[in-house]
Design brief:
Layout: H1 11-20, E1 26-30, H2 53-56, H3 62-78, E2 85-89, E3 96-97, E4 100-101, H4 105-108, H5 110-120, E5 125-126, E6 152-153, E7 156-157, E8 161-165, H6 182-193, E9 198-202, H7 213-229, E10 247-252, E11 255-260, E12 267-271, E13 277-282, E14 290-292, E15 311-315, E16 327-332
Helix pairs in contact: 3-5
Length: about 350
């Protein structure tokens, strides 16, 4: 700390500020340090195309670097109180460029590193980027990718977290212009929880340490939507019920949440839900949503239509509510909530 231009602890005040807001603490730790004298040139290193890259590596010892990392991690886990997550980033043993090879668990001495972390913080969460194929990670972290279903390993579901960006860049980029729309941001959150995941959304500060207006606008989109729809996300996970077209489902016990990505005309048909609903309402205004009862009507009369015995048809307003993603909260009858997945 005292060897930095600032001359003081930079991390402590951040930790204190987050704790003051009731937030738990997780540290991002870069396994890559191109400035360390023992970090060898590899296929991702800025000097990878240097004609004397192999000669530069002479005298460098990645084992000393691994030992240096362990001492840094020791400091992080002993100097700032309880730490809940160590988010290591990242391994790339499959990368090759001429005689240069990428780095993995042997370079980081990942087994020693994990043992140290577990010793100092037994209840901590460690992600899956230490290249430990034989060790089940606490959490799997797909990056800049939206899975279509709950990720699995060896046939079983994993605990997972999608790491995404508000724009196309992890750090602040003045001229970067692929910022996600409000609708896209909220749908990414809903879509992640609907298949059992958590969303880690990155925001990069400017060189002044502030957030620019685009980042503030993006974060405000979450703040505004979550203010009325938080309970369709927090504590929820994937449901066993099959979602109607253009919808995503989340569930928490006897509460089923239907997120409408596309607004249908007047009716929302939901299979296998008939007889299981006690009450339904929109979350944004708490107004009741009614549904049609099963009927044997036919389509031959222009004011009648059939509703199957196992089908529930919600009756919706013709006009879409002015909400980024409208949500119907369904209170399931006792014994009907078995559709939740863990």
């Amino acid at each position: 700390m005292t060897n930095t231009p600032y001359g003081k602890d930079l991390l402590g005040p951040f930790v204190d500020a987050f704790r003051a807001e009731g937030l738990r603490i997780g540290f991002y730790y870069s396994l890559i340090d191109w400035h360390h004298p023992d970090f060898t040139v590899d296929p991702r290193h800025p000097q990878r195309n240097h004609p004397d890259a192999m000669k530069i590596n002479e005298g460098r010892d990645i084992r000393r670097y691994a030992a240096f990392m362990r001492e840094q991690v020791r400091e992080l886990l002993t100097g700032f109180g309880r730490i809940d997550i160590m988010w290591f980033d990242f391994s790339y043993p499959q990368w090759k460029l001429g005689e240069l090879v990428g780095k993995g668990h042997q370079d980081w001495e990942s087994e020693k590193l994990v043992r140290l972390v577990r010793e100092l913080a037994p209840d901590i969460i460690i992600n899956n980027r230490l290249d430990l194929a034989g060790l089940q990670p606490d959490i799997v972290t797909p990056e800049q990718y939206m899975p279509r279903a709950w990720p699995k390993r060896d046939g079983g579901r994993v605990v997972w977290e999608a790491c995404q960006t508000l724009s196309g860049s992890w750090g602040y980029h003045r001229d970067e212009d692929t910022w996600k729309s409000t609708e896209q941001l909220v749908q990414m959150l809903v879509g992640t929880v609907a298949i059992g995941g958590n969303l880690l959304m990155n925001v990069g500060p400017t060189a002044r340490g502030t957030l620019d207006h685009r980042a503030i606008s993006a974060l405000s989109a979450y703040e505004e939507w979550m203010a009325l729809h938080e309970r369709s996300i927090v504590g929820c996970t994937q449901s066993d019920f099959t979602a109607p077209p253009d919808c995503r489902l989340t569930q928490n016990g006897d509460r089923l949440y239907i997120h409408l990505f596309n607004w249908p005309y007047k009716h929302l048909h939901f299979d296998a839900l008939a007889g299981k609903v006690e009450y339904a309402q929109f979350l944004h205004d708490a107004s009741e949503v009614t549904w049609l009862r099963p009927s044997a009507n036919t389509l031959w009369a222009n004011t009648q239509f059939p509703v199957a015995e196992d089908e529930l048809t919600f009756v919706l307003p013709v006009r879409r509510p002015k909400v980024t993603v409208p949500v119907i909260e369904v209170k399931l009858k006792s014994g009907s909530a078995a559709g939740i997945q863990k």
